[in-house]
């Protein structure tokens, strides 16, 4: 009996932890990437149908969001290819949409489903700074931080048996965990902020991807200064509730900058 139990536990621990391909960090990961991506695709479609998407025709801002997205993705493809990790990007169907909303926010769901809110643009101010934000959001998705947060939440909320049933059957419970982890759907109300470790990882890889895409990563410093200033106002930017800005963030970004700059290849004038 005891032996059966220990075998079961060993099996469970093997499926529940995985080492992330780019960060090399072991993380709790109870959901398969394909399940997560299919939940994301479903939520993304629903989100877009319920919000005002800005068409790229005739909108310079929507065009810019798409252009940044495409440049970041080709940089990411190159980064993964050079490390022999292209297989990790299988299943990604990248989409970039600008949504008309006062919210100061942006996110990227697993599988490459990106949204930027128009409310972010007055704070991002320029293309390179927006690329830094989008790179940061994409890095969270690639580092599978949502899966990790969702797994931690699931493990805390449900027992092991209930959890495996919920995942296998894609029950509303699993879908709700997803919404909570990704902060979509106002009916949930409780957002899961990323941890300090996850924020640092997203900052590091976000800067690298932006730099490889031809955007000056140094724009991250004034960007986060503007974000910090905005957070002192009456209504702090929504993006800060899921990406807590520590007072030391700017110092940490400065520490990450020399490495990011080794990847920086300016492309034309829009690189600034
Ligand atoms: Zn973040």
Content-based structural category: alpha+beta
Strand order of the largest sheet: 3-4-6-5
Radius of gyration using CA atoms only: 19 Å
List the ligand species.
zinc ion
Number of domains: 1
Number of contiguous helices: 12
What secondary-structure arrangement, pairings included, does this model have?
Layout: H1 2-16, E1 17-19, E2 26-28, H2 33-50, E3 53-54, H3 60-82, E4 95-99, E5 106-109, E6 113-117, H4 121-124, H5 127-142, H6 145-157, H7 160-169, H8 172-182, H9 196-212, H10 220-231, H11 239-242, H12 249-261
Helix pairs in contact: 3-5, 5-9, 6-8, 9-12, 10-12
Bound molecules: zinc ion.
Can you give a write-up of this model?
There is one protein chain. This protein has 272 residues and is of the alpha+beta class. The chain has one domain (31-271). The chain is built from 12 helices and 6 strands. It has helices spanning 2-16, 33-50, 60-82, 121-124, 127-142, 145-157, 160-169, 172-182, 196-212, 220-231, 239-242, 249-261, and strands at 17-19, 26-28, 53-54, 95-99, 106-109, 113-117. A 4-stranded mixed β-sheet has the order 3-4-6-5, sandwiched between helices. A two-stranded antiparallel ribbon has the order 1-2. The structure holds zinc ion. Zinc ion binds at residues 136, 140, 194, 199, 202, 243.
């Amino acid at each position: 009996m005891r032996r059966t139990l220990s075998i079961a536990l060993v099996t469970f621990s093997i499926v529940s932890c995985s080492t992330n391909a780019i960060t090399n960090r072991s993380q709790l990961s109870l959901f398969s990437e394909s399940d997560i991506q299919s939940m994301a695709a479903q939520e993304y479609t629903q989100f877009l149908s319920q919000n005002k998407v800005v068409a790229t025709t005739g909108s310079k801002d929507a065009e810019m969001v798409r252009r940044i997205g495409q440049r970041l993705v080709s940089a990411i493809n190159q980064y993964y290819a050079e490390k022999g990790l292209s297989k990790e990007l299988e299943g990604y169907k990248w989409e970039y949409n600008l949504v008309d909303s006062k919210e100061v926010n942006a996110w990227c769901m697993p599988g490459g489903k990106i949204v930027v809110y128009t409310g972010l643009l007055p704070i991002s101010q320029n293309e390179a700074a927006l690329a830094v934000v989008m790179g940061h959001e994409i890095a969270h998705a690639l580092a599978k931080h949502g899966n990790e947060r969702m797994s931690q939440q699931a493990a805390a909320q449900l027992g092991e048996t209930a959890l495996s049933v919920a995942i296998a059957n894609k029950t509303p419970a699993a879908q709700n965990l997803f919404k909570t982890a990704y902060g979509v759907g106002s009916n949930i109300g409780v957002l899961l902020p990323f941890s300090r470790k996850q924020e640092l990882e997203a900052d590091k890889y976000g800067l690298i991807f932006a730099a490889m895409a031809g955007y000056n990563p140094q724009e991250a410093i004034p960007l986060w200064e503007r974000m910090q200033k905005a957070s002192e106002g009456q209504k702090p930017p929504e993006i800060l509730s899921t990406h807590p800005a520590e007072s030391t963030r700017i110092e940490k970004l400065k520490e990450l900058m020399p490495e990011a700059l080794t990847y920086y290849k300016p492309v034309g004038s829009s690189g600034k």
